[in-house]
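Before relying on records like the one below, remember that each one covers exactly one chain. Contacts with other chains, cofactors or solvent are not represented anywhere in the record.
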Amino acid sequence: MVTIIGVVVLMVCVFGLAVLHGEMGPILAAAPHELFIILGSGIGGMLIGNSGDAVKGAVAGIGKIFKGPSFNKADYLATIFLVSKLMKVLKAEGAVALEAHIENPEASAIFGEFPKVLKEHALLHLITDTVRLMVVSQGNLDPMAVEDVMNLNIKTHHHGALQAADTLGTLAGALPALGIVACVLGVVKTMGAIDQPPTVLGALIGSALVGTFLGVFLAYGFFEPFSKRLAQIVNDEGEIYGVVKQIIIGTLNGHPMPLIIEAARVGISHHNQPSFAEVFDGMRG
């Protein structure tokens, strides 16, 4: 919602007076072919400089910007409860008792209570792969070594998720220069019509300048903010992986479960952080 409000404010502040005074005609006349040059060449450059996955991520990322982060307070609570239940089985029955749950999570009674986690493949694999490591090692694991593996897993996922934001940022950086390219092409066209009357030359020069305007406007009004917002969302979503790590590593270190859960809870940003009562009343429930 905030992103949509921002887009409306941006458009009103930039184009509002021009619309009120009926001065949009020259801009609207030039905008289609100028946008074709600027956005077309920008997308072409983006395809040249990035992998297919990065480009797909950038396109999907624009939707995520308007939709917002994938995880909310309820999802953090569900993750805490799920991993805590798995660790309770680990402490009570040993790692082998978890094998059926992590080999087929869709059929697991524990995972079945938390369908949202089952849909988040990266989060699900962080949980199941780490527990699978415990199973095959028969519990003989150094907690610090497990933490190193989890940190590497989280870092790799986070780096991949940030590629989409970097791709949008690169596009934002290129658009002003591509706007100049469109403007230069318009000036070249104008020079070819130098013998025309001032009204014709004025229209051609105005059309060329629209290219510079649109390049700067799209870069700093849309794509650079898109890039920064998407990076914020990726960082926000990354906190849920830290919750999983905190509970698993705390359990392996033999810390009391209330301390483990509280450490996981306070590592969540305040806008998603469940209260102490919400977590511990839910655990008791």
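The CA atoms of residues 102 and 128 lie 5 Å apart.
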